[in-house]
Automatic annotation (TrEMBL):
GO cellular component term of the entry, any: membrane
InterPro entries: Cytochrome_b-558 (IPR011138), SQR/QFR_C/D (IPR034804)
TM spans (from-to): 42-65, 92-112, 150-171, 192-212
Keywords, in A-Z order: Membrane, Transmembrane, Transmembrane helix
Annotated organism of origin: Bacteroides reticulotermitis JCM 10512
Transmembrane keyword on record: yes
CDD domains, sorted: SQR_TypeB_2_TM
Name the record gives this protein: Succinate dehydrogenase
Domain of life according to the entry: Bacteria
Length: 222
């Protein structure tokens, strides 16, 4: 679970950097989207990423069940929360479920409208020409999604859950891999908080920037 978690952290770093390009240059972002279309290397990467998510999720449920079985009837006892235990640590499964739901929403809004149509077209399936024409236009899909305030709120909630999940998961992964001495554990906790905050804020900046832009363009030909 730690190894898959670290791999997903690296993917988030790439995805965050890619999204920031959309603010700087629409053409640059669309070039990246075109490069990451339904090419064989993009499909291999997508399959690998999906496998990482599945393994991470399965292990999360498995370890949670193991912990609950180990506690037995003690989990029903009312006890005071230890001061050294983080809120995120006690709610990782719930936070993970919110992240999964948000991921599903993200796939519907982007993957299903971008890579999937290209994949279906390459497989000889009938795809609406307009849908295929907009498949590589990532900025268009970002604009359409974050012009809707409902999606903006849902994405910000998702990012909030992701922040809590990352702040605990990052350093916990390092601890599981052996970086558990008192000096390095405290350092990893600090790095985890800084990294999680930077990544989530950058994602949120893209959401808010495109929402504000949609408000400014309302009634104009932006």
């Amino acid at each position: 679970m730690s190894i898959t978690g670290i791999a997903l952290v690296l993917f988030l770093t790439f995805h965050m950097a890619m999204n920031l390009v959309a603010i700087i240059s629409a053409d640059g972002y669309n070039l990246i989207c075109e490069f990451l279309g339904a090419n064989w290397y993009a499909l291999v990467a997508t399959a690998g990423l999906a496998t990482l998510f599945v393994i991470h999720i399965v292990y999360a449920f498995w370890l949670t069940m193991q912990n609950r079985n180990a506690r037995g009837s003690e989990r029903y006892a009312v006890v005071e929360k230890p001061k050294t235990v983080e809120w995120a640590s006690q709610n990782m499964l719930v936070l993970g479920l919110i992240v999964i739901v948000g991921l599903g929403l993200h796939l519907v809004n982007f993957w299903a409208k971008m890579q999937l149509p290209e994949l279906m077209h390459n497989m000889g399936m009938n795809v609406d020409p307009q849908t295929l024409n907009y498949a590589a236009d990532g900025v268009y899909h970002i604009q359409q999604t974050f012009a809707n305030p409902v999606y903006v709120v849902l994405y910000l909630i998702w990012l909030g859950a992701l922040w809590f999940h990352l702040t605990h998961g990052f350093w916990s992964s390092m601890q599981s891999l052996g970086w558990n001495n008192q000096v390095w554990l405290n350092r990893w906790k600090c790095i985890s908080n800084i990294y999680s905050t930077v990544v989530v804020l950058c994602f949120a900046v893209v959401v808010i920037a495109f929402f504000v832009k949609s408000l400014m363009c309302c009634g104009t030909a932006c």
